[in-house]
Amino acid sequence: MNLTKRINQIGLTIIAEIIASLLIVSLVSANQSNSKINGTEIKLSGTANTFDLGGIQTKDNRYIKQNRLIRSDALSALSSHDKWRLTQQHHLIVDLDFRSAGEAHQQPDKKIPHVTYHRLSVMPDPNFGVHTQRQYANQLALKHPNNMTLFYQKMVTNEHSIKAYQAMFKRLLQQNHGAVLYHCTYGKDRTGIATMLILSSLGVRKTTIMKNYLQSNQALKKTTHKEIIAMKKVTHNRNVLANLKRSRTARRSYLTAAYTAIDQKYGSIKHYLKIKMRLTKTDIQKLRRLYLTK
């Protein structure tokens, strides 16, 4: 009888170990799958939303190469160690800044040795994003709840914005090696549109692009919380705080608005890349040769 109990106990232990092993394998697989969707976060002390797009899968089962495309928020607070990591570990050679002249002057990117800097302002207003906390509160008080969807539509239809993204693609087509980092202030709006266009040109699924875009919410969670606390020191106006939260959040409806504007005005994202980004079939093939691997 004791022998039977012992055998049963051993059997249960083995089963428990097998279940635990299967759970671990499942979690690892899920993490790997998530990495393919979102790329790999580069944790720096001076940024909050920096990701290497390497590992993201395309429709034809290819993957973006590691250390070739990096999306980020502003580089104005990089430490010396951050600079070392970006250049030595991630092979950064080009920094594309989508911010306005005013933003770049107010909080300039840290100079990184051997990295070429280019400012490609997406918004036509040279002082876009430049304001005191009180001025910003006054602006937010007047904004309509759908302001962000209109903003996203503007970024894909405004000729000034289009020229900035055209210039981005020209730079990407010139980079035979090393990493290109592109960014705005928070790394989700102007940078979000840039990522949508880049991933679309590389043949990444729309659902994958959306998941990558929404990843900014987790990355910017602490930053957003701090900004809301800071704004409450200026005002408790509900409209101001609601619009601040809307402007600091990546929402599915925002990127969908950009896609809708493209579809309505240009027919499809494929046609948009051809007509507005001026990417020929040869350009698309070159981009995929430069930035994709099997």
Portion in strands: 5-15%
* Tally of DSSP helical segments: 14
Fourth-level CATH superfamily of the largest domain: Protein tyrosine phosphatase superfamily
Largest sheet: 6 strands, mixed
Shape: globular
Q: From the coordinates shown, what is the CATH architecture of the largest domain? A: Alpha-Beta Complex
Distance between the termini: 59 Å
Which secondary-structure class do the elements indicate? Answer: alpha/beta
What is the H-and-E element order? HEEEEHEHEHHHEHHHHHHHHE
Strand order of the largest sheet: 1-2-4-7-5-6
Rg for CA atoms:
22 Å
What is the highest CATH level, the class of the largest domain? Answer: Alpha Beta
Mean pLDDT across every amino acid position: 91
Proportion of residues in helical segments: 55-70%
Describe the protein's architecture and organization.
This protein is an alpha/beta fold and 294 residues long. The protein contains 14 helices and eight strands. Strand 5, helix 3 (101-106) and strand 6 (116-119) form a beta-alpha-beta unit. It starts with a helix and ends with a strand.
